[in-house]
Design goal:
Length: about 160
């Protein structure tokens, strides 16, 4: 059986790249390494891993400037909520450890993943779509954007389970 790192990396590499990034898988693998390590460190199940993969992709497309924590290099309108969000899961300042520049990028990304998981765990008791939506609100009716993310989660989960 393949380990967490390998199956999560394969899941990330199977997703489309950000429009300004290289599509070369060796370049992408190097770029995604810390994010994949954070997913494995933060999760307890394949569903949680699939959530973090889907959430990161929908939030950032895993754009190189996001992963490098240099959102200012991105085009206007794509700059990590104009500086209010950080990391692959685009957590805001309430997730203090994700913003702590005195720690390593891996520690910040793992903290961001854990913060994103808190809302997902709460909302996903009802549905995966509400798990995504719990990142932003407690509205009990799933929005279309959250339903799309839940479909991505299902696709990623099928890939993780097949490994």
């Amino acid at each position: 059986m393949t380990g967490c790192f390998e199956i999560v990396m394969a899941a990330f590499l199977a997703l489309p790249t950000w429009r300004l990034d290289s599509s070369d898988s060796a370049v992408r693998s190097a770029q995604y390494t810390t994010t994949v390590q954070a997913v494995c460190a933060a999760t307890e199940s394949k569903v949680e891993r699939a959530f973090l993969v889907a959430q990161a992709w929908h939030e950032t497309k895993l754009a190189e400037p996001v992963i490098a924590e240099q959102c200012h290099r991105m085009p206007k309108g794509e700059r990590c909520d104009e500086g209010r969000a950080i990391g692959p899961w685009q957590v805001h300042r309430w997730c203090r450890a994700a913003w702590d520049q005195s720690t390593t990028r891996l520690a910040r990304f793992t903290a961001g993943a854990k913060c994103a998981l808190r809302g997902f765990r709460r909302g996903s008791r009802v549905s995966w779509a509400l798990g995504f939506q719990a990142q932003r609100s407690s509205n009990p009716v799933a929005k279309q954007w959250a339903i799309r993310r839940a479909k991505t989660l299902a696709t990623v989960l099928a890939r993780l389970r097949s490994q």
